[in-house]
Amino acid sequence: MPANRTPLTCFKAYDIRGRLGQDLDAGIAYRIGRGFARALDARRVVLGRDIRASSAELAGAVAKALQDEGVEVLDLGLCGTEEMYFAVTHFGADGGVEVTASHNPMDYNGMKMVRAGSAPLDTATGLGAIRDLAEADDFGAPRPGGSVRDVAVEARAAYVARVMEFVDVAALRPLKIVVNAGNGAAGPTFDAIAAALAERGAPLEFIRMHHQPDGSFPNGIPNPLLPENQPATADAVRTAGADLGLAWDGDFDRCFFFDETGAFIDGEYMVGLLAAAFLAREPGARIIHDPRVIWNTQDVVAKAGGHAVQARTGHAFLKAALRAHDAVYGGEMSAHHYFRDFVYCDSGMIPWLLVVELMGRSGQDLSQLVAARRAAFPSSGEINFLVEDVPAIRQRVEAEYGPDAVARDEMDGLSLDMGEWRLNLRASNTEPVLRLNVESRGDRALLERKVADLTRLITEKA
C-alpha cells in the first residue's frame, strides 16, 4: 500500500461496518460511493437506508458521490435491505447500496452492497476494488450527468407484489399475530404487505408493537436473536392469546418466530420447516443449508425427496450456492432465509408468509409443526466462548474427540460427527470468540452431557 494511503477499517469480508467518527463518517461514505460507481462501472444504482440517526447523512453522502460519478441514483428512502436487493434487479440497475448497521450498537453504521443482478459483493468480486479506490481517494473532478430519482412508491409496490406471490391467501385460516418491528425499518414495509393481504381477504389480525421507526431505539437495539431481547415479544404473545409472534432485526433481513406459548423457535427448525414447504411445491428441488446444525434439515429434505447441499456460513456463500445449484431455498440457523424466486436473496418478510400458510393448510399450531423435529434432533443453540487462544482451544477439542469421530468436516470451522451426536466449533472472524453448536439424534440427555463436557474442555485452564 502506498505510504500516503490510509487503510479504511470499515471494510469487512462482505460489507461495510464501523464505529461512527472512528471507522466511518460522511467523508468516508462519499469516497466509498465514488469507488463503488467506478469499480462497477455503474450508470444506475439503487440506494436505500435504515432508520438510524446517522443513516440519512451517510446516504446523502453516497448519493452525492454517485452523482459526481455521473450515476443515476434510484432513491428508495427508508427501506429494508431486501427491498434494495429486489429493486436492483427490478430496475435493471448496475448495483445497490443499503446504508444500515442492522443490529449493531448505536454508535455504528455501515453499508450492504450488491452488484448487477442483486449478486453479492466480496473482496474478489468488487469489494476489494471499491476499498482500494476509496483508500486512494484520487477521483478527480465530478463527472457530468448524475441525477437522483425518487422511486420509493414504485419500488415498494413492485416488492410487495413479488412477496405476495409466495403465499396462497385462500389457504390461510384466522390467526392473531404479534409483530415486533423493534422500532427499525420493518414497520412501514410490513404495513404495505398487511394491506395487500387485507385486500385479498386474508383472515389475519395483527397486534403491532414497537412499530414506529425510531433511530433512537427506545426499546433497545432490535436483535431478537439475543435471549435478553426475546421476552418482550414472548410476553406480548401470551398476553394477547396470539397464535404466533414475529420479530425482526433493524433492517429486517432476519425474521424470528415465537409459537403460541411464547416459546422462541430456534432457527434450524425453521429452516427444516421451510425446506419441507418448498419441497411440497417443487419435489426433488435442492435446498442449501449452513454447516453448524445440519441433521434436522438433512433428514427433512431426504424424507421429502429433495437434495440437501451444504454451504459455508455467511450470506455471500449461501447466495453463491443457491445460484450455483439453482436451489429453490436456502436457510441458516441465524434466521437468514434465501429464495431463488426472490432474486436469489434473503428476505425477512417471505418466511412468515410461508409459515402462516403452513399453519392454515395443516390446521396445526407452530409448536405442533416443529415439536417432532425438536424431539428427533435436539440442539444446543449457538454457545459463545470468549477465549484467549482460539487455535489452542480448537486443537484441544480436536485431540479429545477427533480420534473417535465417524466423520469430520472443515468447511466452516471444525465439525465432528460422533455417531449419536455432533459438534461444530467455529472461530469468530472479528473477535477472540469460539462458537459451539451441538446436536444429537433424539437424545436430549446426551446432548446436555456433551455440552457440559465441551464447556469444561473449552474453559479449563491449560
Describe what this molecule looks like in 3D.
The protein is globular, with a radius of gyration of 22 Å. The protein has 462 residues and is α/β, with parallel strands linked by helices. The model has no long low-confidence stretch (mean pLDDT 96). Helix content is 37%, strand content 21%. The strands form four sheets. It has a six-stranded mixed sheet with strand order 1-5-4-2-3-6, with helices on both faces. A five-stranded mixed sheet has the order 12-11-13-14-15, sandwiched between helices. A five-stranded antiparallel sheet has the order 16-20-19-18-17, covered by helices on one side. It contains 14 helices and 20 strands. Strand 17 and strand 18 (414-417) form a beta hairpin. The protein has four domains: 16-158, Alpha-D-Glucose-1,6-Bisphosphate, subunit A, domain 3 (Alpha-D-Glucose-1,6-Bisphosphate, Chain A, domain 3); 175-263, Alpha-D-Glucose-1,6-Bisphosphate, Chain A, domain 3 (3-Layer(aba) Sandwich); 265-356, 3-Layer(aba) Sandwich (Alpha-D-Glucose-1,6-Bisphosphate, Chain A, domain 3); 383-459, Alpha-D-phosphohexomutase, C-terminal domain (TATA-Binding Protein, 2-Layer Sandwich), CATH 3.30.310. It has helices spanning 26-39, 55-68, 81-90, 127-136, 152-164, 186-199, 231-240, 267-281, 295-303, 315-325, 350-362, 366-376, 390-401, 444-459; strands at residues 16-19, 44-49, 72-78, 95-99, 108-115, 147-150, 175-180, 204-209, 244-248, 255-258, 286-289, 307-310, 329-331, 337-339, 345-346, 383-386, 407-409, 414-417, 421-427, 433-440. The two termini are 40 Å apart.
